[in-house]
Amino acid sequence: MNELFFWYAAIGTAVFAVSGALLALRKGMDIVGVSFIAAVTGVGGGTVRDILLGDTPVRWVTRPADIAICIACAVLVSAFNKRLLGRRMDWLLYADAAGLALFAVLGAAKAESYGAHALTAILFGAMSATFGGIIRDIVCGERPILFAKELYITPALVGGAVYILLPEALGFDIRAITGLFCALFLRLLAIRLQWSLPFPRYRAPLDE
Amino acid sequence: MNELFFWYAAIGTAVFAVSGALLALRKGMDIVGVSFIAAVTGVGGGTVRDILLGDTPVRWVTRPADIAICIACAVLVSAFNKRLLGRRMDWLLYADAAGLALFAVLGAAKAESYGAHALTAILFGAMSATFGGIIRDIVCGERPILFAKELYITPALVGGAVYILLPEALGFDIRAITGLFCALFLRLLAIRLQWSLPFPRYRAPLDE
Amino acid sequence: MNELFFWYAAIGTAVFAVSGALLALRKGMDIVGVSFIAAVTGVGGGTVRDILLGDTPVRWVTRPADIAICIACAVLVSAFNKRLLGRRMDWLLYADAAGLALFAVLGAAKAESYGAHALTAILFGAMSATFGGIIRDIVCGERPILFAKELYITPALVGGAVYILLPEALGFDIRAITGLFCALFLRLLAIRLQWSLPFPRYRAPLDE
After folding, report:
1. What is the pLDDT of residue C201?
2. ipTM, two decimals
């Protein structure tokens, strides 16, 4: 993975950590709780991915840069949330879309390098991108983002699928960047246009 | 594991996936969310079992048949739930009992083959059979099946215990089928007769 | 790890199991559910720690003493809770503090022995000490202890930090006992004096 992706991954982790810290603050946690939720959100998706792939000890055991980023975000958000957040938060939504797109591609790429089936690799991309947020919501007692109206998991699936379906001969960079932009584009459109998937109509069974 | 058990396991996975898809539909998720919950419910128990045993990458990384079954169930349930479910749902309850009995025996057998202590192997059977449902309920914000009135975990424990306590000389098939039928029989009786275990009376401590 | 710590760890597991059994009883679970929650609470923290470190199969697969302790606690609490608990429960709070302090030190020590970075090792201590309780609360539908007013995670972090920051030349026993007493002392003070960390003031973003 090249230098550019390293920095982008750090930014993605930071954005997810900020989203976790904001939720924890809103729930009234103290600074340790806020840091905990920030770290779980920032590294949760990649950690679940690595456990399922058997890539343990997970990376942050020996290289805690990601964890340090999450804690730094938690402290900064706690200190400056009054000044920082007393304004429109759209930038956070857009940054989250960037993190989502990146982790979807990185997750699919990592699963592929472990010999995963194409279907599984695409799912691993979506998992890496969304499990941090799902764990964050469960621990904080929120409705998980799975219930979100606008497309959220779908752009991650699309990004992973583009990466996986592009021929390997194109090389990691081209496949990854194409997948990333497809996911990002779809997520941004979904935010702008409030796109959603059809909700199947549910009719309760008679004996319920 | 012989051919028969392979097919039975596929049916068990499908039944669990259907139960997950139905709950997700009732909660108002879109088709991606429904598929996600179906997959988590269908393979969740076996995945937790394999992570605890260290059998990673988990099986569906390279052989995604189980995941494909879950997604297919989610799509079918979403498409046909009006026609399919506008009637008595008892068949789902009975099918779930079959899945429960099978995974209890398979989980205990797998743990035994990893050198687990007999007590742990029985617990692994119950975990394999129930964790998918527990994760489903937590992600969907439902009271976990742990709170169910009728015996649910207990038949799984009994099935695993029968398998483990029968002498190895009988061979896998006889031990597995006997354990499976004991678990199935007990679960069906519990459904019919509304059997439940004693609920210990709780008296709150004075300082609460 | 010497004999003394083995016994202390068994006591810590038992105390956590009792806290899980009590919550499950209050929630109206039957004896199997109570045992399940007791076991998850008692061994959950160490299990998550071992999965992240890649130390699988987890210890209780082959050596189920900890699980047996948890089940015994669940049965005893269920049988005697009327007699046992119809009085002040402070002793449980203090015993929980002892378990917290011990697992914080043991978790940090185990992570260190796996080559973890100092920051990660301290976090592993806190995880080992608190994840059992967090899983217990999520499965039972309670607000996780993360929301607790009094210091809970912080003493665990302090205990792990003292252990990690003391020079290795002092030997395991001295480092562990010092870390343990620091964590225990801080937790007991926090209970007595209702110490809490500052709660960052949250100001909702304008567009919320």
Report:
1. 59
2. 0.89
